[in-house]
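so my prof wants the structure for this chain in the C-alpha cells format not the other one, which i didnt know existed until like an hour ago. anyway here's the sequence
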Amino acid sequence: MSGHDWIKQQLRAICAPPVYNALAHAWASYVAFKYRQHRRRFGDENPGRTFYVIRRLPPGAGLFSNVWYVMSHVNIAKAKGWIPVVDMERYATFYTEPVELHQTRNAWEYYFKQPSEYALRDVYRSADVVVSGTGRVVPDLAYSDFSGDLSGLSQFIRANVALAPHAQEQLTRVRRDLFPAGAHVLGVFSRGSDYTVLKPAGHWKQPELTDLIATTRDKVRAWKPDKIFVTTEEKGVVDTFATAFPGMVVTTDRFLISDYDGVTLVPQIRTQRANGRYLSGLEYLIDIYLLASCDYYLGALTNGSRFALALNGGQYKEKCIIDLGVYE
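here's what i got, hopefully its the right format
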C-alpha cells in the first residue's frame, strides 16, 4: 500500500461517499497533471543520449513496492533505448533521511546502485531527458506469474538491480553469521501488522499465524531442514516460532514491532535510533535477500516475498506459496 492509498483509506472511513468521491477525483486529476511524463532539456551535455528519470509520487510505498516500480520503469526504458536513472532525492520516500548517507541523498542509492553508469548530476545537465509519470506502470513486473519459470525475471533483476557496496557487505556478513555452512534452511515469510489489520485492497491475503505454524510443521516433516529462517516485522511471530520449533529458528537483528497500533503503515513506524528510516529499509532488504538464498520457501505473497521468489529464480529445492486471494 502506498502512502497515498493509505491516506485515501483514512478519508474513506471518515467522509460521506459523495464527499470522498469528489475529493478523490480532484486529487487524482491534480496528480495526473502535475506528475505527468514529460520531456525536458536541462543543459547541453550528453548529446545523442536520451535519459529516463524514474520518479515515484512522494512518499512512495514500502521498500519492495518501490523496487518493483523502479524495475518496471527500467523495463520500459530498455525497450525504448533510453538510459534509466532513479531519482529518490527530489522525490522523497518513507526511507529518505534528512542528512546525507553513504555520500548520497538519493534514497535509492542507500540500497542499490543506479541501473546505468550515469548519476543524477549527469542527467540534470543533459540535453534530452524524459521524466517519468508517477501512475501505475504497464506492464507491472510485480504481477508476473510466480508459479512458473522465473529464471528470466531473475536475470533481469540481477542485471539491473545491484546492491550498493555497503549493503552487499552487510548481507554477506549476516548470511555468514546466521546460516551454518552446509545447513539446509527453510525460509518462512510472515507479514502481519498493517497487512492483516488494514487489509489493503488488491494486496494478497496473509495466513493466520496458527495456520502458518501448522503448515511449517508439515513442511519440516517433509523437507527435513536443519534451520528455519523466519522473516517478519512482528516480535510475537518470532516468539511463537521459537516456541514451536525449539533450537531451529534463526532471525536477524531487525527491529520488530511488539504492539502494532492498528493504523500506521509499517514503513512509517519510526524507531528511537539514528537514521531509523534508512535502517528499517536496510534490515528488510537483508531479510528478503536472505530469504532468496534459502533452500526452501514457505509463505504468502507480498512485494517483498515476490522479490525473493524472483531473485531466487526457481532455485529453491521446494517451495510452498500460500495463495489465499486478495483483500477486497
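also thought this was worth mentioning. The longest strand covers residues 185-189.
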